[in-house]
Structures are given as C-alpha cells and as structure tokens.
Amino acid sequence: MENGYAYVSNGFPDEESGTAPLLRLRRSASNTTSQIAIIGSNPCPIESLDYEIIENDVFKQDWRSRSKFQIFQFLCSKWILCFVIGIVVSLIGFFNNLAIENIAGEKFVITSNMMLANRYLTAFLIFAAANLGLTLFACLITTLIAPEAAGSGIPEVKAYLNGVDAPAIFSFRTLLVKIVGSIAAVSSSLNVGKAGPMVHTGACIAALTCQGGLKKYGLTWRWLRFFNNDRERRDLVTCGSAAGIAAAFRAPVGGVLFAFEEMASWWRSALLWRAFFTTATVAILLRGLTDTCLSGKCGLFGTGGLIMFDVTSVDITYHLEDVPPVLLLGVIGGIAGSLYNFLLGKVLRFYNLINEKGTAYKILLACTVSILTSCLLFGLPWFASCRPCPADTSEPCPTIGRSGNYKKFQCQPGHYNDLASLFFNTNDDAIKNLFSKDTDTEFDRTSVLIFFITCFFLSIVSYGIVAPVGLFIPVIVTGASYGRLVGLLIGSTSNLNHGLFAVLGAASLLGASMRMTVSLCVILLELTNNLLLLPLVMLVLLVSKTVADAFNHNIYDLIMTLKGLPYLETHAEPYMRQLTVSDAVSGPLHVFNGIELVGNIVHALRKTGHNGFPVIDEPPILYGLILRSHLISLLKKKAFHRTPTLTDVNVIKQFSSSDFAKQGFGNAEKIEDIGLTEEEMEMYVDLHPFTNASPYTVVETMSLAKALTLFRGIGLRHLLVVPKTSGRLPVVGILTRHDFMPEHILGLHPMLAGSKWKRLRFRFSLWDRFFS
Amino acid sequence: MENGYAYVSNGFPDEESGTAPLLRLRRSASNTTSQIAIIGSNPCPIESLDYEIIENDVFKQDWRSRSKFQIFQFLCSKWILCFVIGIVVSLIGFFNNLAIENIAGEKFVITSNMMLANRYLTAFLIFAAANLGLTLFACLITTLIAPEAAGSGIPEVKAYLNGVDAPAIFSFRTLLVKIVGSIAAVSSSLNVGKAGPMVHTGACIAALTCQGGLKKYGLTWRWLRFFNNDRERRDLVTCGSAAGIAAAFRAPVGGVLFAFEEMASWWRSALLWRAFFTTATVAILLRGLTDTCLSGKCGLFGTGGLIMFDVTSVDITYHLEDVPPVLLLGVIGGIAGSLYNFLLGKVLRFYNLINEKGTAYKILLACTVSILTSCLLFGLPWFASCRPCPADTSEPCPTIGRSGNYKKFQCQPGHYNDLASLFFNTNDDAIKNLFSKDTDTEFDRTSVLIFFITCFFLSIVSYGIVAPVGLFIPVIVTGASYGRLVGLLIGSTSNLNHGLFAVLGAASLLGASMRMTVSLCVILLELTNNLLLLPLVMLVLLVSKTVADAFNHNIYDLIMTLKGLPYLETHAEPYMRQLTVSDAVSGPLHVFNGIELVGNIVHALRKTGHNGFPVIDEPPILYGLILRSHLISLLKKKAFHRTPTLTDVNVIKQFSSSDFAKQGFGNAEKIEDIGLTEEEMEMYVDLHPFTNASPYTVVETMSLAKALTLFRGIGLRHLLVVPKTSGRLPVVGILTRHDFMPEHILGLHPMLAGSKWKRLRFRFSLWDRFFS
C-alpha cells in the first residue's frame, strides 16, 4: 500500500467503501460512505449498481399484472430509444465537427492572412489570444458548472458499465458542458481529442433518454417506467457509447466493437444487435448530413472534419521482407506506448495536487498549458527550413487557406514549410497529411522527429487540465508521426509507402496505450477505408499490445485507479484462490427481523452507510436481503402496525413497483429527509413483502476467486455469505464490490503482496529506478 | 408436447435427460441416460460440460504446488496453442481450396472440351458420373467412418460451447472425414458449402491440440495437463471456430465476430484477444500461401478459390432515393429467408426418417440428390437462349476453360450462355460472376430467376444428406441471384449497379437465415473488400433479420432442436418468472454421507445415470457435491478403510489432480469397468477430500428465471437447491441443464403453454395452415 494508507473496514463491509487509496481521503469511523475525487472536482460519494433481479412480493405482483400489450410496448420502446439515441448522437457529432472546423478554421485563416501580410507578431498574438480564450472558456464552464465533464469521460462510463455509479456523470448539465467544452478545447489547438468526449456524450444521451428526459422539468413519460432499473440503463448506455465512437470516427462497426471490447463489462448477443442498430442509424444519418455539406453550405467544413483518411486507393502490395520492419515498429511502439501511459499517470498525479488547491489553480494550469502550446505551435516551424514545392503535386503548393499538405508559413512563394503543415493545422488535418500517399519526400526527418516529440509531450501535459478533452486523436497523431519517422529512417529498403507507415505507427501507439485489438483494428480500417491493410495492422496491434502489457496497464484502467473508481476485473488474481470468502468479510453484521421496530430501522440507516441488510426470521433462518432505498421508500409510505403483525395482502396492493423503482441518477432520497414522530418510531413494520427473498448466497468456505466469478458474472451489488455449519446465525456477512478489490484484500492479508501469487508482470529495475 | 411425448423425470433429475422430443427416443425407467440422434448416425449419449471451478482438497493442493514457472509455462502455452491452431487451420483451409478448385476445375475442363467437340451426351455422362462418384465417396466415408462429421458442424460446435458435449464430434476420425468429405462433396457440384465444415474443422483442431494430440497413440505432452478442464477447452474451441471462418472467407475480423456473435455462449475480452491472434495468424499465413500460387504452380487454383470478390473498386455513390428499393429488398429477403429456414426444417425432418432406416437408404438419398443436381445443372442452361458477346468486355468471350463471366456451353462462337455461366461453374465462381460490376446487361431476367429458384430448392434438398456439407455458400449464391433479380427488375431507376444489388441480396438472405448482424456485415465487407458498402449492408441486415425474427428461429437453432441438442438460451422465457426452482426439481434425491460405504456408491452409480451427488454430513448439513467421474476415479484408486474414518492428509498427497482431470473427449471410464471384491464393497471411503465443498446453491423460492441467470451466466452443470426453512434435509434437489429446457418445464406445467407468458412471436394462421 502506498503512503501507509490501508483499507480499514469499520463495521459492516459496504460497497461504498471503494475508496481511492492514492488520494488520501478522510474516513470517519461512524460512516462507511467514502468519497472519490473526480479529478478537478469536489469529492463525491459513489454508489454501486445492482444488476440482480430483485424478487420481492411487490415486484412480482407488478410483473404478473403486466399485460401482453405492455410487454410489446416495452420491446418496441427499447428499439425506439436506440433509434432516438442514434439520431441525437449523430446530430451532435455532426454539429460538433461543424463547429470545430469553423472555429479553428477561422482562426487559422485570420492568422495566415496576417502572416501573408508579414505581420508575424500580430499573427502570433491573435493565435495565442484565441487559443487562450477558448481554453479559458472550456476550463471555466467545466470548473464552475460541471466538474464531472472534465477529461475524456471514457473511464467513468467504463466504470458505470462495470457497476460503479459515479455521481452526476450523466446529468444534463454534464452533457451540455461536455459538448460545448469539447468544441472550445479542441478548437483552441490544444493537443486533445474529441472522440472520448463523444463517447461520454453518447452515454449521457442514452442515460437521459431512458430516464425519459429531464425529470426536473417533469418531462417524463409513463411508458418509460420499465427502464427504471440498472439493467436496462446499462444496456442503453452501452449502445450510447458505441454510437459515440461511431459518430466520432464514422466507424459504425468499430463503435460496436469498441463498446464491447473496451467499455462493456457484461454483454450478450441481443445487445450486440441493438448496439449495431444504433451505430447504423448514426452512420446513415451522418452520411446524409455530410452529403448536404458537399455543396459548400457549411463554411469551412468542406468534406473533412469527420476524419476519413483515404490513405491509398491504389493496391497495396507487401511481402515477407516487409514484416521485420513492421515488427520492429510494433515493438518500439509498444515500449513508447507504455512509457506514454506511465508518464501520463505521473503527470495526472502531479496535476491532481495542483487542481486540488482550488479553482484559480485549475484555471492557471489550463492557461499555462494553452500558452505553452501556442508558443510551440507557432515557434517550432521557424526552425524548419523552407522546401521548394514539388513539381508533380496534384494540389496547389503552397496551400493558401486552411487545409492541405503544403503550408506556406514564413516561406517565400513556391516554397512550403513542412513542419508548419503539421503543426499549424487542426489535428485531423495533420493526421490526413501524415496518412497521405505519394508524399514520401514531403517531410524532412528532423521535422517529423520534432513533431513527434512535441506531440508526445504536449498530449501528456494537455490531458490533465480541467476541460472535456480526449486522448484518442492525440495518440493517433503522435503515432502517425512516429510511423512516418520510421518510414523515413528505413527509406527505400521497404516497399511500403510512408503514409502506410504512418497508419501502422498510429496503430502501434494506440494498441500500446489503449490495449484494444479488434476494435482498434476495425476503427483504423474504417478510417483509412482500406481493407488490404488488415494483416499488417493486426500484426502491429498484436505486437505492440503484447510488449506494452509486460510493463503496465491500459491507460483507462490507470485513470480509473487514479480517480479511485473501484473497477472489478473479470479475472481473479491468483492469490484469491488461496483465500476463502470468510477471509474477506469483516466487521459486525447488522441484521433486521422479519417484523422490525421502525426505530431500529431508522437508527440503523442513520448510523451506517450500508445499502443492504439481511432479514432474519425465527427460528434463525435467512429470509432475504432488503435494500436501503427500499427501506426509505417504505418509511416514507408509513405502512406501520402498532403490534408485530404480518402485512395484509391488500395492503401490498397499495404499493406499486414504481415506489421502489430506482430513481434517476443521483436523486436518491436520504433517511435524513424523512420525518417520523416518536409514536411512529415505536411502531412495527413488516419487511417481508419488500425483501428480496432469493438473494444469491455463497458458503463461507468458497474461495474468493470462485465468489468473484459469481459476483462479477451476474453483476451483483451484495453477495450474502452463509455458514457451513448449523447452529449459528444464518448469515455470516455480506460481500460487496469493495471486498473484492485487490487493495482491500492485500490490506487484510499483507503477506500475500510479496508472494508468488502476485500477477506476472515484468519489472525492470532500471525502469522503476529512473521513472518511479 | 408433440406426439404425446412428455419429459418424465424418473428419479433424480439429470443433465443427461436433455432428449429430443421430436425423435421419439426410447427411455427405460431404470436409466435416465438419454440418447440423441445425430442426423445420419447412431444415437449416442450426450454429456454436459462443467465450467464451474471445482474446489476440492486435491485440486487445491495441486494449485498450491504450482510453481511460478509452471504458471508462466501455462500462460505461454495458451498462446502457443493458439498459434499452432492458426497455422494448422490455415494450412488445411488452403489445401481444401486447392483440392476443390483442382478437382472441380478438372471436371469442368474435361466436360467443356467434350462439348466443344459436340459430344454432349458423353459430356453429360462424364459430368454426372464424376459428381455421383464424388458424392458417393463423401457419403460413404461419413456413414461408415464418422457419422458425426455429417452436416455443417456449426450446430454441434455451438452446442459444445454452450456446454453440451455431443459424443465424438472432436475426434481425429471426425476431423479427417470432415476435411476429405467436404472436399469431395463441394467438388461434386452439389449446392453445398465449405465454410461450415471449416468451422468444425477449426474447432476439432483446437480440441485435439489442447488434448495434446492423439491420446490413443500416446502422443501427449505433460505440460498440456493444465488444459485438461472444460474451461480451457472451451476457450480454445472458440478460437478454433474463429480460425475456421477466417480461413474459409479470408475474413479474420469477421471470423472473430462470428465466433463471438454466433458460436460462443461465454466470452470475455481476454478471449477476444486470443481469438484475434489466431485469426491474424490464419490471415497472414493464408496470404503468403496464396501469393505462392500467383505464379501458376497450383494448377487450376489461380488467384481464386479463396473467395475474394472485388465487387467495385470504383467509388460507390448512393443517395436517399436508393433507400426504398434497398428496404424492399431487405423485407422480401427476410420473408424468403424465414421460408428457407422453415422448408429446410421440414426437409431435414423428412430426411431423418429416411436416414434412420439404414446405411443403404442414406447412400440412396445422397445419390438421388447428386443425380438430380447433375440433371438440373446440365439441363437447365439449354432453356436459355444464347446471347451475343458484348463488344466492350475486358475478358475473352466466350470464356474457354474454367472461370470467367461468359460460358460458351452449347452456343455458337461469339455467343455465350448466361445461365451456364452461373450453373456450370463452382459456387465460388458463380458468386464472383453475380457480384461483378459493369455487367448489368450480361444476364437475362428469366435466367436469373431460374437460377434463383433452382438454387433455393437445391440447397434445401442438398443439406440433409449424410456428408460434411455447409450452408453458408449456398445461401450466399441464392441471395446473390435474388439480389441480381431485384436489380434487373428495378432496372435503371436506381443508381446502384447490379453487382451491388447481388451483394445486398446475399446479405438479406444470410441475415434472414442465420440472424447474425455485425459478424455478417464484417464478413461481407471483407469478402467484397469495399467499406463504402457499409451503411447499405447494415440496413439490409437489420431489416431482413427483424422481418425473419417475426416468423421463426435462426437456422442453427432449428437444426440443434432437430438434433435434440439441449441448447440453453441466455434469455429466460417470460413464464420462468412465474415458477420457482422447486417447481422444476422433481423426483427423489440420491445423497451420500461424508464417509460412505463403497457398496452404496457402486450401487448408486450402477443404478442411476446421475453425474453429481450431494454429500451430507452429520448433523444434517450440506458438505458439497461429488461428481460421478471423480467417484469412479476414487473407486479405481481403492483408498478404502475398514472402519468409517477420515482420510489422512498424507493419503491425499498420493492423489494428483491429473487422476481427476477430465479425460479427453468421449474417453470417460464407466462404473462397469471397475472390478471390486465383496470385501471391498463392505469397506468405507472418505468422500470429503474429493468433494467440491463450495458448489453454487440457490434457495428453493428463487424464480426459475433468476436461477437460469446464474446457471447460464457461470456455465454450471449442477445447481444445488437448498431449503428455505430449517429442520429438513439440507438439500432439496439438483437443477441441471435439462430442468431449464422449455420442453421439460412446459411438460411439468402444461397450463403455461397457452398463457400470455409465451414468447411474443407473430403467428400467421395461413402460413401455419399451408406449411405445417
């Protein structure tokens, strides 16, 4: 454990204790509710999600009363919601690109015109001021309105799909800030991406849609009540994140695969189909919208914006002798990618210390990064020598205006500045330039090297600012320049053209940083629109991921750890086979009787932060598990008895399942909000009809690894542990998400940390010594 | 229930009771082992697979004793096995295509030469005789050597991955017959495919590889012992089936997606990566092998064989007005596809009656189909009129030799027979002709209509013969002709060329018959090598699948039902929420004591066919569950005591986990093989160290739907049901796969069959009346 911090489970183990050891959080002994710090925001409590089918009398009655029409309506509305999500996401994606291309384009046009008039200082000042203003705007709205919108959002959505409900990540506020902030941040020439924010936007839209709109303004539909549970929401959020990638890269199949490979923790074929339907809607609508722009009605949008690199429409041929350089590119890319992750982690940790100090510090940091970026982007091209325009090029040289391979910058007519063609452009255009074919002589080795190094470090220092910024595009542009560099160094010994090397370089860095395989492969193919690349891209991805896996985790896992999101892996750590579940449960247990005194319930709810309580009947047998939220709803309804009696069946009929349905995100009621008289506190309440009578249980001698399989496989929030022998209390404890966290287990059993059961991972002492 | 047959669970419920109600099987009251009829083979018992982590003392001890080196070795060998599978599958795939192209090619060359010499009758006789001979050979080796190799094999592999171990489907014998038989069957011009058999071949190779080769000949490696469990085998078989599709269609990404979407019942991201590695190996090696053939060293193989249709390297443009015809194509394709499934089901049922009668009938059926096919293929082109060769074609017309768009057949020089260009060709070449661009005037409407109808019915009557034949290619060729027909009928009102319509037609029929989405989409894109098609292909697939889903199930589910393979769906039927698990368990329970008399065990094993027995300790508490196979291993070891005593720890050390490891496929030992003396029968054996002490349990009041989530989610073979109240036997019953089968449940509770809880599916009375 770092910094001497160890998980101490005080009292009843609870899922809310999934705390972030790195952030040194306050914990009080009387409350197990823990806090996480969303980077750049105030600490908030996190909740777990429950994908278990809760079987109590009220829900059962509701299910039985559903008519065939209602079931049909439910099935239809699933598809309608997916369709709506697809349409909204594609509209936002289109609008996003339109805005970025026009804002950034206008900025470059003005600056270029100044430079044509030889007013270089004015050009720089305008450039830097525009960038600073945009960055400041993005940072301000994020800090003041929705701190949850900071960063790419992919780690939060991934954690949500794993069962961790970070607060307010799917609020309308967050959505708005995410969209506007992302446009401003990307337009400000920061080395940040828009793909990650698009994924979060898609997920947000899905979550808001299934909630039936804005609850605050009463805009909800009654027929959406069937979606008031975590399972349905999870499914829609998965579809939404697939739609996000589809809109960002115009890659519908890649979007589905991304959602499956990287985002989703649970998945089934039926969901694949729905996600595919959503991304198909996005792809078709986006194509239609882009077509309407072909006539030039969209300002500077042109045909681009939505990246679609036509790397090579000619046939690509490659042979066995091209494999060794590609392998080498993969290996070095793998090392570079893991180094990237490592450095990014360190920088984020450092930034976190700054951002914690207050709003002013956050803004100062963002401004510093923006000014640094402006200086580098405007300054570095001056070091590159002007190159004469090639005679046989198909496009005008130098390119006056915004896009194109040849930027004039400070050069005399008939010459171009190759470094400015990369730096003085949007990232999308820089990638297009790097991916373009038949341009092997266009760039100088030194220029590409400078560009690569600058991008590598700029993207690392840019990600941590408090604004909605992504990682995908910066990694692609860095990787593409790396690939070009390899191509230039290998020279004519290879048959492959340098545009192809750039694609492979992008693949290697993406693979090494994000550790996806199939989805990245498909996204790259859909981007470059050339299937003949497939075997080489596959090879590079496999090699770079394998190499990088030997060093550290993927970038999103790293950020999740930093944010303290308790992500539950599918795979059990080897030492979990050595422990039984009773080794992991700890603390005294709080149970209720089947018919319980109201005062006892209120006391327990106030005193503890637990979300589930076992219900015991006489003679000691386990009746079931009751959730905190259901107890609170029950207390609100005040169906109390003066004597300990069972509730009448007719009384149950007064309750509808919607009383117990999960409220929207972050709207859970609190025990403190319920006022009860002294008299009511002395009354009894029958918990039976509201108790989940068939919770999943495991025997105390089961290994933790096996229990994890169940917990993770079904998506549980609480797992009851029952005793092996008879004559004891019929429940030994409750396992929650936090009990399966390696930090918790290694905290309880420190001797395991150094044992042979730790995960196999290479540790190079030199690497550790220099960089740790 | 059909035919008055109802599932009667006699005694203990057991997973081996997953019988096929349609095949009217014999069941004796004393034995619950059931039989399934692999179509065209002798009935064999089926087994379930167990993906649960079995935790008994012996396995635990083995796990603890593993060194870090052994864990590393295990991890490495996983990847090495995937690599080996990839290489072997690609070699077989290449060899397969080489053989088919050469055999079929030679046949067509000889026949064509005869026809050039105007010896039409001889040509027909040679053609028919060659076809008959090849069909006969395929049918004979299948019937006599490996009846399990009949059909495509995809349903069996899919069932295996769901946890159903049909006997001998992964034997070396089956593999050989599958490869050789598939070559013969496809070469014989039957309207059958080679993709399905390739999937089975891939799965077979994976299963044999992880078994460490041929057990019979002692070719096993000790370090493969870690793969001796169902989980590891399942993972490798999944990778193998992905490799199969990758080799059949040169579609590595499509292969992975196919394995995920259609085949696998359990899946996780790590497996995705391994499957991707396997298919990448296949793709790269296959490309290398095909390149070596470019110089013409492979006989008639040429560049083709492995289908790679270059439908359009030109830009495809389409607009909003092209959507309605495409939608129409999707809807009609959906109806045609569901009709296809329906008819195929009927024909298979009918063929089953014939095939059951004996080997002679099987062969007779195959020969009839072959002769019918030969007559149609040779006869129908005579009805087409000869068309003059187009002036502006790039290839020679008429094509003399094997491949090409213009077949001379009976026409005079300078003319070609368009129907012969489709019929008198391998299926691969017919598809290539249909998919080719700029050939809108090449085919006559009537010709394409005749071809479509013939293919539709020929593929239905061909699939049921006892030979290794697949469905993929016939559906593609039928769909492609359907698409061409739509293109011809719509004519010039659409911007789309007819080759494109053919691709969309193939997509619609595939989607409607196999009901896959993402994987089919990617396979088609990888086949046609054109990503611009993507939105249209997605649209067609979505529409046709939706339409077809309203009528019936996908083709593989249909075949699995016919074969009586108890496939467990993820999705619980609505009525399962109305039933508790105690409604599904039935019959008296057979339990053992912790220390049990040998005679009792032998008696129970002989008397019942059960595969799992609860072990009870005094005072009545549930100790765990012991498997039949472990009991048999234990009896073989004869670690008995004269008095009821606990086994010493040192005695346990004499047992190694390999004694209890699952033997290879179909090599399980039987209780009858173990000889025990009268004296030994009177001795005691301590079951504790060999009992799985932490089986998964559910409480008897849990709904069946919720229990299914657990059973299916974890991949269990046995699920123990424990009582809600105390003072009873600590186990109420055992749920196995068969208890979750709708046939079983509806048999126990017939009133549910007509209730509103039945699955929502349109029922058109006309459809039922005419076709049922």
From TrEMBL, chains A, B:
Gene3D superfamilies with a match to the protein in the record: CBS-domain, Clc chloride channel
Keywords assigned: CBS domain, Chloride, Chloride channel, Ion channel, Ion transport, Membrane, Repeat, Transmembrane, Transmembrane helix, Transport, Voltage-gated channel
Transmembrane segments: 79-100, 120-146, 236-260, 266-286, 298-320, 326-343, 363-384, 448-478, 531-551
Pfam families per the UniProt record, alphabetical: CBS, Voltage_CLC
Coiled-coil segments on the chain, per record: none
InterPro entries, sorted: CBS_dom, CBS_dom_sf, Cl-channel/antiporter, Cl-channel_core, Cl_channel_pln, ClC
Mode of membrane association: Multi-pass membrane protein
PANTHER family: CHLORIDE CHANNEL PROTEIN CLC FAMILY MEMBER, CHLORIDE CHANNEL-LIKE PROTEIN CLC-G-RELATED
Family to which this protein belongs: Belongs to the chloride channel (TC 2.A.49) family.
Name used for this protein in its record: Chloride channel protein
Gene source species: Helianthus annuus
